Amino acid sequence: MTDQPEPGSGQHAPGDRIPAGRGLPLRGPGRRRKPRSRGWKIAVWSLAGLVALGGAGTGFLYYKLNGNLTGVDINAELGTDRPANVDNGSMDILVLGSDSRSGANREYGHDEGGARSDTAMIVHVYPGHKKATVVSIPRDTLVDRPACKLPGGGTAPARSGDMFNDAYATGGPACAVKTVESMTGIRMDHYVEVDFTGFKNLVNAMGGVPVTTTRAIDDPDSHLNLPAGRHTLDGEQALGLVRTRHAVGDGSDLGRIQLQQAFVKALIGRAGDAGLLTDPAKLYDMADTATKALTTDSGLASVGKLVGFAQSLRGIGAGGLNMVTMPVNYDPTDPNRVVPLTSQDDQVWAALRADKPVPASATKGSAGANAGAGGVVTPQPSRSTTAGH
After folding, report:
1. Whose CA is closest to 297, among 105, 33, 73?
2. Which of 60, 165, 255, 327 could, after both became Cys, cross-link 116 (CB 3.0–4.6 A)?
C-alpha cells in the first residue's frame, strides 16, 4: 500500500457522529471526490483553463460545452433514505467506467442491451483538499444490493449475493450509488461516469499518457501488446491497459485494478505536462472531448459547476493520492467471484467517515493487495517517451 494521506483539518474520531451538511455547496448525489476511473480530473481542469482563456467568447463556449454534458438527478431518484449529509470540507465521489458495447462502443464486444460498471472507485477527499484516498471496488464482488428503481418504472427487489457491477446494469447510476452507500454508510457527494469511447477520446485529446512497463504485456483479449520500457499510450492502448487482466498478475480483475490505479497516477501526472493552459486550440479540443465523455450527477452537469469543482480539487496531485483496493478474498465456491472481508472493509469505511488514513491492517492479507500486478506499470513524467506498440 502506498503512503497514507494525512487528513486535513476538521477530523473526527472514529466513534464520533459527523455533523450534517458536509462537503462543498457543489453537490449532486449528496455527501462528500478522485480522478475518475479514467481521468475526469484532467477533463474538468481543461474546462477551467478554457474559461480563463475564453475572453469575449466565454458565453458561446459555455453554451456549446454545456450542450455536450449529460446529467443524472441522483438526489431525486434516491430521495431521503440515505446516509447523513455532512459538511466539514471533505467530499466523496463515486467514479464509474461503463462497459457499454452499444453505439460507438460496439467495437469492444457484442451489445447485450445494457451496460455494467466495469471500473468503480470511491474517491474520498480530505478536508483542505490536498490529499485523497481512492478505494477501488472489484466489479465481481458479491454484495447485498438494496431495492432499486428500474429505468422503465417499477422496482427491483433487494438481492443478496449479487455482483457489484450488476447494480448499474439493474438500475443505472442511482442504483450504483445506492449500493455503494449501503455498503459503506458514506453518502456520495458526486457521481462521474465515462464509457470506453469517451475514455479513449480523452486520452487522445491529451496527446497520450506516458508510462513505463517493467515487463512485457501481451493480451490479445484487450488488443494490447507492449514490450517492457517507456511508452506514450494513445487512447486505444490506454483502454487496452485498463481492461487487460490475463497478461498480468494472477489474471484476475484484482490485477487489472492494480494497473488501473497506476494509470490513474500517470494520467494525473500528465495533467501538469499537457500544455493545456498555454494552447487555446488544444484546450478547447480537450474541453469539448471531456464534456462529451462524461456523465455526471446533476450537481456537476454544467460548465460553471465543473469549473468550480475542478478549482476546489486542483491542490491534489498524484503524490497526494493513496490507492487502496476494497479488502476481499476469492469466493471458495467460485474463483471468478470475490467476497468482502467484512471486518477489514469496516475499517476502511470507518477511516473515511472519520477523515483518517486507511490503516495498514485493513488491507493486510486481502487478495486485492496480492494480485501480483503492482509495479508492472509506473508513471513516466518525461515528454520524450517513445511511442507504444
Report:
1. 73
2. 165
16 inside domain? no
SS3 at position 29: coil
> Higher model confidence: residue 346 or residue 304?
346
For the chain, the maximum distance between any two Cα atoms, rounded to a whole number of angstroms, is 63
Burial of 295: CB neighbours in 10 Å, binned 0-12, 13-18, 19+: buried
Helices then strands, each counted (H, E), the chain? 11, 18
Name the β-bridge partners of 338: 141, 330
In a domain, residue 356? The reply is yes
- Cβ–Cβ under 8 Å, residues 76 and 11: no
The residue-averaged pLDDT of 220-242 equals: 91
**Helices marked H in the chain:** 40-54, 58-66, 74-78, 166-184, 196-206, 235-243, 253-271, 280-293, 303-313, 342-353, 360-363
Q: pTM value? A: 0.79
Is the predicted pLDDT of residue 121 greater than 80, yes or no? yes
Contact 283, 307 (CB under 8 A): no
What pLDDT, on a 0 to 100 scale, did the predictor assign at position 255?
Answer: 84
What range does the domain containing 108 cover? 40-379
**In a domain? residue 11:** no
Q: What is the pLDDT of residue 381?
A: 55
> CB within 8 A of 142, min separation 6: which ones?
161, 162, 163, 164, 331, 337, 338, 339, 340
Q: What are the phi and psi torsion angles at 374 (to 5°)? A: -65, 135
CA-CA distances (angstroms) from residue 362 to 79, 278, 389? 32, 43, 38
Q: Is 81 exposed, middle or buried (0-12, 13-18, 19+ CB in 10 A)?
A: exposed
Identify whether 27 is part of a domain. Answer: no
**Which pLDDT belongs to residue 171?**
94
CB atoms under 10 Å from CB of 254, counted, come to: 26
d(CA 262, CA 233): 13
Q: Cell digits for 176?
A: 450504483
The CATH number of whichever domain residue 195 belongs to comes to 3.40.630.190
Sign of CA dihedral 388, 236, 177, 148: negative
| Residue type, position 186, single letter | I
Res 267: pLDDT: 83
Among residues 276, 270, 265, which one has the least CA distance to residue 48? 276
Number of compact structural domains in the chain: 1
